[in-house]
Automatic annotation (TrEMBL):
It comes from Phytopseudomonas dryadis. One of its GO terms (molecular function) is mechanosensitive monoatomic ion channel activity. PANTHER family: INNER MEMBRANE PROTEIN, YNAI-RELATED MECHANOSENSITIVE ION CHANNEL. It is a multi-pass membrane protein. Residues 139-178 form the Mechanosensitive ion channel transmembrane helices 2/3 domain. Gene3D superfamilies: 1.10.287.1260, 2.30.30.60, 3.30.70.100. This is Mechanosensitive ion channel protein MscS. The chain crosses the membrane at residues 12-34, 55-77, 89-106, 127-153, 159-181. Its main location: membrane. It holds the Pfam family MS_channel_1st. Residues 252-335 form the Mechanosensitive ion channel MscS C-terminal domain.
Length: 378
């Protein structure tokens, strides 16, 4: 009977009416304040994405209406004298609503921060997107985990056993997927250390190509022959990687040889003419040209110069022009390039006799006693 009498309690319904009206008023006031702040900050940051007003405007715009209603209700409940169970719900609900809203704000802020790192200033290229994605995911996991555990602890749940279980489970999962985690942390290392980035031309082992994508587990490279090469991040970091995209200049060393019968004065002139040719070639810096040594079939010259560009095609055009001018210069000096040469001498032996049909045989000289007769061909 007493349970039915509570529904006809005038004070109770008066308190409920006060709570409803106060909730509506507080919600309207909070919505107005949030809307004004959002509009003002958006106006200040117009056309300037990435600054603090824009950041705060987006975070404030992420305020949940449902959580505002819950927050307004919790404030309104303090204006009326309600039963004890309502007061208990008030104490727990206040913390839950506040924790959820703070988590939403932090979530939005972390996502904006990671996006700004990827885009960079003035719309340029920023940090590695893989690195920022991994960091943002780790931060968000921590934020939402702390929020959930805080709510459970506030509601009276013993989270000690839960935290211990999560720790043991985390160790088991880490052991099971240690290969994957190794590649993930290798990806994070690539993002932080930046040995190469998307678009760089790299060479390692037998692979040469442009970096197309750096993922959580693998890096994809478009090779010179056209196929896509997929390499695990951990395996890639174990190798010596040559990054040609960051090369500003090229040091070129090449050799050529001339005949042994070239006079010494012309040998000196060859070195001088090589220096003149390279100095007159655009985008080059002459280093040295020397008569290096005596090789098997040639007098060898070694030439060193610097190409003031990292473009490989431009380097090949320069080398081709130097080779053509060097060819003309040696012709002007009447100096010939060396060719492979062999001198054969027969000492104390007799050449074979060849008989050709229609021709008279020639007289054969008598061999010496020490000569050995070679085979005859008829």
């Amino acid at each position: 009977m007493e349970q039915w009498n509570i529904w006809f309690d005038r004070d109770l319904w008066l308190g409920v009416a006060i709570v409803l009206v106060a909730t509506l008023v507080i919600y309207t006031a909070l919505r107005t304040i949030v809307g004004i702040l959002h509009r003002r900050l958006s106006a200040w940051s117009k056309g300037q994405d990435g600054n603090w007003p824009h950041f705060l405007a987006v975070v404030i715009g992420r305020t949940s209406r449902f959580l505002l209603i819950a927050f307004s209700l919790l404030l309104a409940l303090r204006l009326a004298d309600l039963p004890a169970n309502w007061q208990s719900a008030l104490s727990h609900g206040w913390f839950v609503a506040l924790a959820l809203q703070i988590a939403l704000w932090v979530d939005t802020g972390v996502r904006l921060w990671s996006r700004s790192l990827v885009v960079g200033k003035h719309g340029g290229t920023g940090y590695n997107p893989v690195m920022t994605t991994i960091i943002s995911i780790m931060v968000l996991i921590v934020v939402w985990s702390v929020m959930l555990l805080s709510i459970l602890a506030n509601l009276g749940v013993d989270i000690t056993a839960l935290v211990a279980s999560l720790g043991v489970g985390g160790i088991a999962v880490a052991l099971a997927v240690q290969t994957v985690l190794g590649d993930v942390f290798a990806s994070l290392s690539i993002g932080v250390d930046k040995p190469f980035e998307i678009g760089d031309f790299v060479v390692f082992g037998e692979v040469a190509g442009n970096i197309e994508h750096i993922g959580l587990k693998t890096t994809r490279i478009r090779s010179l022959s056209g196929e896509q090469v997929v390499c695990a991040n951990a395996d890639l970091l174990r190798q010596v990687v040559h990054n040609y995209k960051r090369m500003d200049t090229r040091r070129i060393v090449f050799k050529f040889g001339i005949n042994y019968d070239t006079p010494s004065d012309k040998v000196r002139q060859v070195a001088e003419r090589v220096g003149e040719i390279i100095r007159a070639t655009p985008k080059t810096k002459f280093d040295r040209a020397h008569f290096l040594g005596f090789d098997e079939s040639q007098l060898t010259f070694e030439v060193v110069y610097i190409v003031l560009s990292s473009d490989y095609n431009q380097y090949m055009d320069i080398q081709q022009e130097i080779n053509l001018q060097l060819l003309d210069a040696l012709r002007e000096l009447d100096v010939r390039f060396a060719l492979p040469r062999r001198d054969l001498r027969l000492v104390g032996e007799r050449l074979p006799t060849l008989k050709v049909a229609g021709l008279p045989p020639q007289a054969e000289p008598e061999p010496n006693e020490q000569d050995q007769r070679l085979p005859r061909f008829s």
